[in-house]
Design a protein that fits this description.
The structure is a single chain. By secondary structure, the chain is an alpha/beta fold. 28% of the residues lie in helices and 27% in strands. It is built from 9 helices and 15 strands. Helix 1 (10-20) packs parallel to helix 6. The longest helix has 25 residues, at 162-186. It starts with a strand and ends in an 11-residue tail after the last helix. 38% of the residues are buried.
């Protein structure tokens, strides 16, 4: 059995690792994005999937454009029986979807049809949900619209942020995939059409999504902080033009009502900021622009944030 795997980030690499050690395949070919140049020194950066593939001596293809004729040649050359896709980031042309005997199988980090799109793990936390999951689906020409094959539910704990939930979902998805593939190969898999009337869309995180609106409740703001931690992080902006990444915080009720949202009401040992709906946010970890990640107490000692600081 030949597998062609398509993916890029750490989520994908976890899936690939499970497939590599599953014993289901005689050969595995990897497709990932072209290398990029990052950092001040413009050093070559590999995707997490390429790093894994190179370390495990798996052949790697890095097409710039899947519509190019030479990728058809790659398919013919590698002749995969199945294609597995996990966070690849590009829609596949019909000739790719239609090629393998057992189809193109996608590992999507949500309980479809909810949270289709690029950022399901971020968005489900930002929306304050208590559970999410993974869906194994057969791909079609739409965006996460194909027939569902299997699902697993993953609980979102109050202390979960994007990083912790990412790993939980990736691990659950990897296991679900290797449990589901034998049913696909054996012909016993059941394919369930999605109810498109119930779909929601988890659009890619934008810069605007990151900015904290202090008129929202502390509970809503904390969901944003958790959903964006530890990367790219929620942004807090001050009247003076300073910016801070917020890594962790704790919401609570405001003891004495104060209508001035964004006002710092405590900057001794801890940082407390007034939010909407008579709530207050206690900031635990943050990072000033151009600085290092630090505890709130260190930011206070370094006078990064004082009682005169006003967030907007």
């Amino acid at each position: 059995m030949k597998l062609l795997f398509m993916g890029n980030p750490a989520f994908s690499a976890k899936i690939l690792d499970k497939l590599t050690t599953s014993g289901l395949f005689d050969s595995i070919i990897v497709v990932t994005s072209p290398d990029s140049m990052k950092g001040r020194g413009y050093k070559t950066s590999f995707s997490e999937v390429k790093k894994y593939a190179v370390a495990n001596e798996l052949p790697v293809f890095q097409p710039v454009n899947l519509k190019a004729e030479n990728f058809k040649d790659t398919l013919e050359e590698t002749a995969p029986d199945v294609i597995v896709v996990a966070s690849f980031g590009m829609l596949l042309p019909s000739y790719v979807i239609d090629y393998p005997k057992y189809g193109c199988i996608n590992v999507h980090a949500s309980l479809l049809p909810e949270y289709r799109g690029a950022a399901p793990i971020n968005r489900v936390i930002m929306d304050g949900r208590s559970e999410t999951g993974v869906t194994i689906m057969r791909m079609d020409n739409g965006l996460d619209t194909g027939d569902m094959i299997s699902k697993v539910i993953v609980e979102i704990l109050p202390g979960d942020n994007y990083s912790t939930l990412h790993d939980k979902v990736a691990d659950a998805g990897a296991q679900l995939l290797v449990d589901t593939l034998p049913d696909i190969f054996g012909g016993s898999a059941v394919y369930e059409k999605q109810n498109h009337n119930l779909h929601t869309y988890a659009r890619k995180i934008s810069e605007a999504d990151r900015v904290i609106d202090w008129t929202e409740s502390a509970y809503t703001i904390n969901c944003k902080i958790r959903g964006l931690a530890n990367e790219p992080c929620a942004l807090a902006k001050t009247e003076g033009g300073s910016e801070f990444k917020i890594y962790s915080a704790e919401p609570g009720e405001l003891e004495a009502p104060d209508s001035e949202c964004g006002k710092v009401i405590q900057a001794k040992k801890i940082i407390r900021i007034v939010c909407g709906d008579n709530t207050v946010l206690t900031v635990k970890e943050l990072q000033p622009a151009g600085g290092k990640r630090m505890l709130a107490s260190d930011a206070i000692n370094g006078r990064k944030i004082t009682l005169d600081t006003k967030f907007i």
